[in-house]
Amino acid sequence: DVKVTQSSRYLVKRTGEKVFLECVQDMDHENMFWYRQDPGLGLRLIYFSYDVKMKEKGDIPEGYSVSREKKERFSLILESASTNQTSMYLCASSSRTSEQYFGPGTRLTVT
Amino acid sequence: AQTVTQSQPEMSVQEAETVTLSCTYDTSESDYYLFWYKQPPSRQMILVIRQEAYKQQNATENRFSVNFQKAAKSFSLKISDSQLGDAAMYFCAYRSPQGGSEKLVFGKGMKLTVNP
Prior knowledge:
Radius of gyration of chain B: 14 Å
Largest sheet of chain B: 6 strands, mixed
Oligomer: heterodimer
Helix content of chain B: under 10%
Strand content of chain A: over 45%
Shape of chain B: globular
Helix content of chain A: under 10%
Number of strands of chain A: 11
Order of helices and strands of chain B: EEEEEEEEEEEE
Strand content of chain B: over 45%
Structural class of chain B: mainly beta
Radius of gyration of chain A: 13 Å
Shape of chain A: globular
Number of helices of chain B: 0
Structural class of chain A: mainly beta
Number of strands of chain B: 12
């Protein structure tokens, strides 16, 4: 079974802090994705990566950056967390032909 | 750009009954993939069913089936013999064909309640 893990289920950070969210997949997938999920807005793509060290902006990249130094790991970075970044963050991975497999999510609260 | 619309934010169904979740999409592509994902409360998002646009036959997975109407750009999910474990958020999603972007475009989701 494909496994996508995220470093934390719940995270509380203060405004202005630098926040790292880590995602690891074990299926040698080329693609990895970061979404945020908010009630009534569905899932919105922040960034995705289709290969090591490659990244592309999604629909809402402002305030975020990403890093993919190894194929199995994709990190989301909030350089200076703000309260409007309080949300559920979902990581996903896929091969070129498969559906996306999701991690359990990280519920981030910025106070 | 492609868009996916789930017009009903919430639905409820009685246990053992059948319910249909609607989804429409907009695209100029002729080949693509459509998905239904399920997100139970506080649990992981999982794939329910997948449909390739070039296939005329509607996909089926046990109690879950789709009604894919390509001309109408409609992709509804039918859940038969509803169970309490079917209670979840359901998301419809679109993906461009292989060789294009593997990004998914999601609808806003629909909350399904199953009443005992």
